[in-house]
Amino acid sequence: MKPTTIKGEIVKEYLSRFPKAAHLTLAKKIQSETGILFDSVDQCRSLIRNYTGSMGEKGRKQLTDRRFMRTETVQSTNNKYDLPESDTLTYYPFKFPKAQNDILIVGDIHAPFHDIDAITATIDWAKEHKVNTVLLNGDVQDCHHLSSFVRDPRLRRFNEEREITWRLLDQIQNAMPNAVFYWKQGNHEERYERYLMVRAPEIFDTEEYQYDIIMRMGERAITYIGDKLLIKAGKLNIAHGHEFRGGSMVVNTAKWLFGKTKESALVNHFHNVSEHSEPTVSGDLITTWSTGCLCDLHPAYMPNNRWAHGFARVRVADNDNFKVYNARIQDGKVL
Questions:
Q1: Which of 37, 33, 36, 71 is nearest to 55 (CA)?
Q2: CB within 8 Å of 332: residues ≥ 6 apart
Q3: Residue 75 has pLDDT above 80, yes or no
Q4: Where do the domains of the chain lie, and which CATH numbers do they carry?
Q5: Which of 187, 184, 209 is nearest to 25 (CA)?
Q6: What is the DSSP annotation of 157-174?
Q7: pLDDT single digits (tens) 120-144
C-alpha cells in the first residue's frame, strides 16, 4: 500500500466526521471545501471508495487502514476443502464520536403526519437542556405513496412529502444551530429503497438515487446511517426497532427488546414509552427502553392504539457509561 497522500489524509478526516455519508455527497462536500486540491469530484470519490473498501476484494486486501470500511466480506480461516468464496458480509455498528455525548433521540415523525405541538415541546426542551447532538432515529418521512400497503390517493405525493420534510428539518436545525445531526434509516425510509428495487432495478444502486442524496442531507450536514446498522452511544445500543422482527403486539415493548438483545438498548418504531431492567448474575444492571413518537397518534389506518408522544436524551460519560432520560409528552407538554 502506498503512503497516504495529503489528499488521502483529508479524505480520512472527512470520513471520520461523516462516516456514513454517501460517497458522492461526501466527495462534493470535500471538493467544495478544499478548493483546487482535488482535480475533480470523481477523483475524490475514488479515494473515498478506496478507504471504505468499495473497490473490490483486491482493494480491501491491500488496505492497511481499515477504520473506514463499511462492510467486509467474511473470509474463512479454514477452507481446506477449497470451497467457493462466500458473499457473506459483516456489518460494523456506527459509533458516535466522543464529542457527541449529549444526544437527543427523536423518531417516527412521519412527515407530513407530524404532530406540531409534540415537536415544538421537544425542541423547547432540547434547547433548554443544550444537547449537542440530535439523532433522527428513523421514519422521519412517511413515504406514504411508496408503501406496499393500500395508499390513499388523496394524500400528498412523495415530492410534496419531501418538501415538507425539508422545511421541518430546516426549522429544527435553525432552532439548534450548534447541534450535530444524524439520521438513522427506518422502515419508512426503506420504502423508497424497496420501491426502486421493484420498479426501477436498473438504477437502484446508482449513488445519485440513494435516499440521502435525493433528500439532500449533505447540504444540511446530516450524516445518514443506513443498512440496518446498530448505533453505539457508549455502551448503549440504539436501533430504530424494525431491525428486530416482531414486537408490535407485545404488552411491554422494552421487555421484549431485552429478550432480543440481552444488552442495554433503546428503540423507537413502536410509538410507546416503556422501560425494563434486569440484573445479570454478576450484578450488572441491563435496561432497555422504547421511546414515544412525534407523529399523529390516531391515524386513519389505526385510530385506536396505545401510542404516546415522546423522545429520549442519552448522556455518555468518558468511560462509556450512560444515562437515559425517556420523556413522555402529553397535551404538548414534557412530563
A1: 71
A2: 117, 118, 120, 121
A3: no
A4: 6-91 (no CATH), 94-334 (3.60.21.10)
A5: 209
A6: PHHHHHHHHHHHHHHHHH
A7: 999 999 999 999 999 999 999 999 9
